[in-house]
Amino acid sequence: MNDAIYEKKKIHLSELDDFLASRLVDSETTPLMFSVSKYDSQGYITIGQGKTRGQITEGGIDFELSPSEYLSLDSIEIEDFTKQTIYTSSAYEFFDFILMYYSYLECLLDFTGNSWRINILKHEKPKT
Length: 128
What we know:
alpha+beta, 7-stranded mixed beta sheet, about 35% strand, globular
């Protein structure tokens, strides 16, 4: 479904929304494919962009209305976020949350209406 990741770059997680928005504006097609991995414990990530012919599935979870907003982190079914489309007004907040559980993600991403749409294609837990 997707080609290799290219254009890897180190950025601070707080810059993620602006970084992704600029990539979408410069792109001729959507969705875009990205890999995201933790770089260090100071909030830096490595992000790489790839090409895809895949599509984001309709329906899914509204991250702002999900149980993660009001339940303890121990009771979250984190796999729910990897099986369906995520809608969020802040890619930064979503990836800040999901990178607590996974060290590496590949996902499709676009922006529609007033929210980011994210499909996680691949995920890896930190090696222990």
